[in-house]
Every structure is written in C-alpha cells, then in structure tokens.
Amino acid sequence: MCIKDNGCGISEENLSRMFEPYFTSKRNGMGLGLATSLNIIQSHKASIEVQSSTNQGTTFMLQFEKAIHE
Length: 70
Prior knowledge:
- By secondary structure, this protein is α+β, with helices and mostly antiparallel strands.
- The chain has 2 helices and 3 strands.
- The protein has helices at residues 12-15, 33-43; strands spanning 2-4, 46-53, 57-64.
- The longest helix is centred in the middle third of the chain and has 11 residues, at 33-43.
- The two termini are 24 Å apart.
C-alpha cells in the first residue's frame, strides 16, 4: 500500500529522524504521531518505508505480511 502527497517534501536531515519519539519539525507538534504509527504498524507485523524529495512530495510505502487462513 502506498500513500503519496505532492507537498513540500521532507529534508534528508528530518527524514532520518522522523520516527523518533518527540522529534518534530512543527512549531506546536509533540513528535509522537509517527512514532506511535510505527509502533502500530510493527505490532501488525508490517513494515514502512519513506521516500521524499524536497518540493516534490513524500511517499509512505506499507507492506503487510500475507495472511494465512486455516
């Protein structure tokens, strides 16, 4: 699953820290949103990858394990 925007993108410096708890680039942010999201994604045995280009946008790619039903 991919989620993509065409916003301002994320700088290389911020990209490497974006899932750290309490890290934020927003003036009034708390820095818990993406850290919490990562925790939820990992609890479902999924992974997330982020690609971003300044002034072009960001893409979040989520990959879930294939469910096996008995």
